Sequence to fold (214 residues):
Amino acid sequence: MPCSATSALTRPLLQDFVLQPDVFVGGPAEVAYYAQVAPLHEILGVRMPRVALRGHVLVAPKRVLRFATRFGIKPEQIFTSPDALLAGREPEGVAEIRREAAEARKELMKHIERIGDIALPAEHALARAINRSIGHIEYHFNKLSERSIKGLVRKNKERYAAVKELIAMIYPDQQVQDRIVGWFPFWCRHQQHLVDRVIEEIEPDAPEFKIIAL
Fold:
């Protein structure tokens, strides 16, 4: 007899019907599913368990987390790239680079338009060449601005290296640590200390997570 699997949304209903748990501990998405299917429990006569949000922690060596204190970085600021984070801490320099680049582009465009006004009556095919040139100029001015801003934020090599290491630990490859890094390497290095620190710091059913120093 053929059978079909439930969808992710209705799976909690089937689990509760078969297993009849007293408590369900899940992640944000799983808890959201329960919020959507809760009325079906009453309609179908399935007892709904107590739903709790599981505790969520990220971990890093104390040496790496000290960089956040040293350079005044808030936890929520870590979830970006080193260049973006440090660019936000150089507002005057970044603004000046962008202002100078925009002014230079404006002046150059004015001269190009003047050249076109002089030459176009004699050479109509020049219009396409001018439009292509304008596109190239805008592209290279944008690239120049980006490279200049990166150079500005990287001028302090020690700070840049520290921020890069901090972000690579907590937000590797632009993904939250626990999404792509397993717990086993941390266990191999810290063993029981890892377990003790997680138990000490974790807060089940809390809407936020913690970054734990090991």
About this structure: The mean pLDDT is 81. The beta strands are 23-26, 50-53, 57-60, 210-213. Residues 91-119 form the longest helix (29 residues). The chain has ten helices and four strands.
